[in-house]
Every structure is written in C-alpha cells, then in structure tokens.
Amino acid sequence: MGEIQSTDGGSSDRETTVSQLRDVVQQFVDERNWRSFHNPKNLAMSLAIETAELMEHFQWLSLEQSDELLDDPQRMAAVGEELADCLSYVLALANTMQIDLSTTLRRKMVLNRKKYPVDPA
Asked: Do the beta carbons of residue 43 and residue 89 sit within 8 Å?
C-alpha cells in the first residue's frame, strides 16, 4: 500500500488506480506528521502555488514555443514534476475532505456536457 514505484518500469497510469495514488500521498503525509497542516485552506492555497509554478514554464512562450517543449526532455521532466506536485495536492485535498474524485469527476463531466454541447458544425 502506498509504495512508490521507480521511474524505470514502475506502474503507469494504465496500471495505477486513483486509490493507490491517494494512498501514496497519504503515506508521505503520515510519515512526516503533516496531517495538522493538511486542512482544506492550506491545501487549496498550496495547489494554487504549485499551479503557478507550472504556469511559469509556459510564461512568455508563444503557442509554437510551448508545443516545442514536447521535444525537450529536460523541460518536459520539469513540467512533469510541477504537474505531479499539483496532482499530489489535489489528492491530498481529496483525502482531507473525503471527496471521491472518480464519482465527482464523472458528475462534473455530465454537467459540462450540458453546459458545453458538441457543436453540430
């Protein structure tokens, strides 16, 4: 439970459940006795900060330049790390607030389909 796989042949998105990812984050938090800091306000603020750090990788780039990131392994790794930080805070917030992400996302996509119907053109 909560075991972090190595980056060379470890579990991928296809093999890892949301629950397993939540366990990885919770184990990390518990090992450091950070539960007292993991309240909804702090986690939401931390998520916003990490999102800003992700955005920094794209600041001042043209659309073409941002697409060119895909061909730069170092920059892609840096973007991936920031995205992982964002995801870890999303999972920590879901853990703290006991929100089932799969159910919530499916419900939200139903609402989004109504709000943004497919353009028949």
From this structure: yes
CATH classification for the domain delimited by 18-115, as one of 3.10.20.30, 1.10.287.1080, 1.10.1740.110, 3.90.550.10: 1.10.287.1080
Residue-wise DSSP of 1-50: --PPPPTTT---TTT--HHHHHHHHHHHHHHTT-GGG--HHHHHHHHHHH
Q: Would you say 82 and 50 are in contact if contact means Cβ atoms under 8 Å apart?
A: yes
Q: Which tens digit of pLDDT belongs to each residue from 1-55?
A: 445 554 445 689 999 999 999 999 999 999 999 999 999 999 999 999 999 999 9
In this prediction the pTM is: 0.88
8 torsion bin: left (phi>0), alpha (psi -120 to 50), beta (else): beta
Q: Model confidence over 44-69: pLDDT tens digits? A: 999 999 999 999 999 999 999 999 99
